[in-house]
Design brief:
By secondary structure, the protein is mainly α. The protein contains 19 helices and 6 strands. Helix content is 63%, strand content 4%.
Length: 391
Amino acid sequence: MMFSGWFDLPWWGLVLTALALTHVTIAAVTIYLHRCQAHRALDLHPVVSHFFRFWLWLTTGMVTKEWAAIHRKHHAKVETAEDPHSPQVHGINRVLWLGVFLYVKESHNKETMERYGHGTPDDWLERNVYTPNSVWGLWLMGAINIALFGLIPGMLILLTQIVWIPFWAAGVINGIGHFFGYRSYDVADTSSNIVPWGILIGGEELHNNHHAFASSAKLSSKWYEFDIGWLYICILSALGLATVKKVAPKPRFAQPRAVDLDTLHAVIANRYDVLSRYAKLAKRTYSNEIERLRHWSPGDAEVLRSLKRALLRGQAAAGVESAKVAEALKKSRSLEITLAMRQELAALWERSNASKEQLVRHLQDWCRRAEASGLAPLVDFSQRLRSYALA
């Protein structure tokens, strides 16, 4: 007779057990590996930190230094040829279904480990147990599962634990999170929020929010978004087991005023909120121009419609597409001004060599020209820009 384990559970009990165990692993990845180790968004009590490290050794065999280094490199080199797992470079199918192999390949890159793996655990256990014997944890987890639930159920639960993170984290987040979804912030990369309710993958579903504020311990930003990882962090914090170091800034507003140094600091601190609001302005202007041209010049409206992505993506087009965009914008003065001023506004926080005084003058000039443009949406936006206030 086959050994049935210490807990003779029905099939649905085994399913719930597998889901509970994998959810602990997801929590360990998002709270410990991602927010704590890779981005230093919070500090964890040593007991909590080591529990997560031990649990990840048992259920995934992942090494903290490797995970943190690869993720930091992803942010530093996002969607370039050096990005370890970009679907824009490797293709969505390869990242979604074979993302774990991209992770393993990058984990053997010594330069990545040396440059991006700093500050991760380097104690006796890490050097002598977790890193050199990463596979042992999976063998131990398998033995525990078999002892608790029986041979076949135990092996199936172990298999679920083994594939859960490679598929959801290495595949879905790294793949779909840079390919499909909605965007709350107009960041330079293609990161997207998969769904607004971050439950299944611990809040990592809110990937666009994360790329906008990488060092934030909280991944949700809109009222309708939910980050279960943040809920767990709040519970740990209330128990004195976690200390939050940074969260994304919440925009504050005052009465519109003359642009000064405080306005500059407030605008730069809230730059992703600024760009997000400007992206909505650009989309409204685009829609209005399509509707206007549809009546007066259907051919020009069709040209603008065919170039929608190039016009609204917030990045410069290249080659033939760039020439088409330039030609199309000659048909719409309001759209041409709106898109040109978006690039100028984004350049505000990209001018690393400019002094504060130069940046203030740049912002003053931008607001002056926006309010003199005669375009009501741009005038309203400029006045709102001048109302951003420091926290």
